[in-house]
Design goal:
The chain is an alpha+beta fold and 159 residues long. The chain is 19% helix and 27% strand. Among the domains are: 20-50, no CATH class; 85-157, Beta-lactamase Inhibitory Protein, Chain:B, domain 1 (2-Layer Sandwich).
Length: 159
């Protein structure tokens, strides 16, 4: 017990307080920050005696301003079918790889949003239909969900 106390007192007595300073100095390459004093005439700022200013900006979002000037010229209109295809996302060629047990999110990721969506049918689930497109021509794909997972996948050839 006495030995541990004496060791503790010895370590406390030998502990030397550390002093660290940051100096902003001019160099031939530009501005340099270092922990030793600058050469005479090279000191730009002693950050111990003259600390840097710190401003805190709150993270609240700023509401968007409504433009009061004249509206910009309208862009040329796209065909509705082209815009619809672009908004759907997914790859139509992946439709043939759908399987039971997939979640709605997996289906949306693989083949995109459905063209027709019916809800409240068949075991209280949903039914999504995908019309034929270039990546999956002449095939109507119907996906039935029960409990948030694929219950049945039907692919019908239509001409």
């Amino acid at each position: 017990m006495l030995r541990s106390r004496s060791l503790l007192l010895l370590f406390l007595a030998l502990a030397v307080p550390a002093h660290a300073g940051v100096y902003k100095c001019a160099n031939e390459k530009g501005v340099v920050y270092q922990d030793t004093a600058c050469a005479p005439g090279k000191e730009l700022r002693n950050l111990d005696t003259d600390p840097a200013n710190l401003s805190v900006v709150p993270g609240t979002p700023v509401p968007k301003r409504i433009a009061t000037s004249a509206p910009a010229a309208k862009a040329p209109r796209e065909r509705a079918s082209t815009a619809k295809k672009r908004d759907k996302g997914g790859d139509p060629a992946e439709r043939k790889f759908l399987r039971t047990g997939m979640t709605e999110t997996e289906v949306l990721y693989k083949i995109g949003k459905p063209d027709v969506e019916l809800s409240g049918r068949r075991k209280g689930g949903q039914q999504w239909s995908y019309m034929p497109v270039a990546g999956d021509p002449d095939t109507l794909t119907t996906v039935t969900f029960a409990g948030g997972k694929v219950d049945r996948v039907e692919r019908k050839v239509v001409r």
